[in-house]
Amino acid sequence: MVALPVAALLTWLSVDLDPWAANQRFKLERADQAALAFGKLEAGQFRTLGSGNTVFYAERVDQDGQLHNLFIRREIDDRQEIVVAERGVQQVDEHGSQSLVLFDGRRYEGVPGEAAFRTMEFSEHGIPIDPHEPDLESDDLELMSTAELLGATDIERRTELHWRLSQPVSVLVLTLLVVPLSRTDPRRGRYGKLVFAVLIYLIYSNLMATARVMMDQAVVPFWLGTWWVHALVVLLAVTLFIQQRLRMAWSARRKLPADREAAEE
Predict the structure, then answer these.
(1) What is the pLDDT of residues 96-119, one digit of tens each?
(2) How far apart are CA 13 and CA 186, in angstroms?
């Protein structure tokens, strides 16, 4: 009965808590990296920011981090943007996105080689340094919530969903093996079944990893997934249980005539 609450706990951890924790860790790492990148800004030096399409220069940086007399050049597709401002501040939000907020400046925008440049004066203007959040592709599947995976149709996300659901199932499957392996044969010693149990676990783990690769490569259909591995281990547990029961029954039948003969004497 202990296996049921343990499996329920693992289900919650695998389906809900683990993705949430991975997502929070990802956001914190992005925020730390962004803060570190901004922290390296120095006065009087040209710096490349973001993905390399932004060149930044500040004449002076106060102790509180406020920037003065800024020059910024950005490349946006085939256009070019040049911004000058009297002062500005650095910002990093909770998602790690970087931006510069500029005050009292002028913005020039146009296509290099053409005379038609737009000019705009502003009292406040924000420039995103890294505006795009990374897409949650195959490398970031652990960041996705289970609810997002439920509606997915691609192989990678379906495999991730299947893997999360398989972990608590493994607890129940391994619990079935405890019953036949918990009885020790005195003739084989205490450690005989322990070695056998470790061997089964290693094979089980390797088969699960193989099944996941097979799902990623679409070798097996989604409905089959890793269930065939669980089924094999369940079949092994049932076989061991039946074998143990038959051995016990046979031993009892052999012992009964001997007990009768001893009683008659």
Answers:
(1) 677 888 999 999 888 876 777 788
(2) 40
Domain boundaries, the chain: 41-128, 138-256
Q: Tokens for 136?
A: 């949650």
Helix-helix angle 155-182:3-12, to 10 degrees? 160
List of residues 6+ apart from 96 with CB closer than 8 A? 27, 29, 30, 31, 32, 33, 34, 130
Q: Check pLDDT > 70 for residue 83.
A: yes
Q: pTM here?
A: 0.49
